[in-house]
């Protein structure tokens, strides 16, 4: 037991020694069982340490994934709350379909579920969509049609945080946020939306998790499956906008859309070495504001559905 406690303490120096003893208490009889039990507790504690402020609804140790998208209403959604920055979308628990009412979006989520939909994939805390909707919902003009706004976010408690901001912005009935894995749930979500007479007006994917390591690039959000789903639901003439401050990430998304969606999407710029200079939506994300303030490059591309 002493060896297990010391190993845990060295792996996780932020954990008090007393807590290390607590986690490793009373292992079962037998060397093999004891080692297995101890390492499971270490792994569990590691998950707890890493996700304490993010996925509070996930209990450990447990193999159940059914509750990952269910966040207790009492969870902290303070504006200064810290959330986990990265998750593995290929992990088993993120393959579980999200919780969605049978009559969504006609369940009161949107006042008019037949309006065109702007869907932002990887919306984070929702500031971009909230700012955009606040500008457009009250006074739609000839340039900007009236729309509904939907943000998808893979980190459950971040999506919950964003959702709780909606009434505070007086945007209930026009904006919604869903915690989900877009590569698992997007088709189901869009099928439900169009079944009530709505259509997709615009899709934006902005500053997605870069997953820098080569072995992790398969975790990136823009996959052949995602492009295929978008091609089914984005009507002719509507747009798909992508941007990132990392050239390799933007180029990767752009190449996937060009190759997998060659029959469906037209890149507004034929040269892969050229990028859109301005954000066509006209409202910047928090990341975009930060990047531009530091004088760094932003790489953008715009696709139109053929």
What is the CATH superfamily classification of the largest domain?
Answer: Vaccinia Virus protein VP39
SSE order, one letter for each helix or strand: HHHEHEHEHEHEHEHE
Number of helices: 9
Shape: globular
Write structural notes for this entry:
- There is one protein chain.
- By secondary structure, the protein is an alpha/beta fold.
- The protein folds into two domains: 50 residues, no CATH class; 212 residues, Rossmann fold (3-Layer(aba) Sandwich).
- Helices cover 34% and strands 13% of the residues.
- The chain has nine helices and seven strands.
- It has a seven-stranded mixed sheet with strand order 3-2-1-4-5-7-6, with helices on both faces.
- Helix 1 packs across helix 2 and helix 6 runs parallel beside helix 7.
- It is globular, with a radius of gyration of 22 Å.
């Amino acid at each position: 037991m002493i060896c297990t406690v010391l190993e845990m303490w060295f792996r996780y120096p932020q954990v008090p020694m007393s807590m290390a003893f607590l986690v490793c208490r009373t292992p079962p009889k037998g060397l093999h069982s004891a080692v297995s039990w101890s390492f499971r507790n270490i792994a569990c504690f590691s998950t707890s340490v890493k996700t304490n402020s993010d996925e509070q609804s996930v209990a450990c140790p447990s193999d159940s994934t059914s509750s990952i998208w269910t966040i207790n209403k009492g969870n902290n959604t303070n504006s200064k709350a810290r959330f986990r920055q990265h998750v593995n979308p290929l992990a088993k628990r993120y393959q579980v379909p999200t919780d969605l009412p049978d009559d969504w979006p006609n369940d009161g989520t949107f006042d008019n579920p037949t309006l065109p939909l702007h869907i932002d994939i990887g919306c984070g805390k929702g500031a971009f969509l909230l700012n955009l909707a606040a500008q457009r919902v009250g006074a739609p003009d000839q340039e900007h049609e009236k729309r509904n706004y939907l943000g998808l976010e893979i980190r459950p408690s971040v999506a919950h945080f964003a959702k709780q901001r909606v009434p505070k912005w007086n945007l209930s009935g026009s904006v919604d946020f869903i915690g989900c894995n877009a590569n698992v749930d997007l088709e189901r979500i869009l099928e439900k939306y169009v079944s009530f007479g709505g259509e997709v007006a615009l899709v934006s994917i902005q500053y997605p998790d870069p997953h820098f390591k080569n072995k992790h690039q398969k975790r990136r959000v823009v996959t052949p499956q995602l492009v295929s789903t978008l091609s089914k639901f984005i009507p002719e003439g509507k747009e798909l906008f992508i941007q990132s401050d990392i050239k390799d990430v933007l180029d990767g998304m752009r190449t996937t859309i060009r190759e997998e969606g060659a029959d469906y999407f037209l890149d507004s710029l034929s040269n892969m070495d050229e990028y859109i200079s301005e954000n066509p939506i006209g409202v910047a994300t928090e990341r975009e504001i930060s990047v531009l303030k530091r004088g760094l490059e932003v790489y953008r591309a715009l696709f139109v559905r053929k």
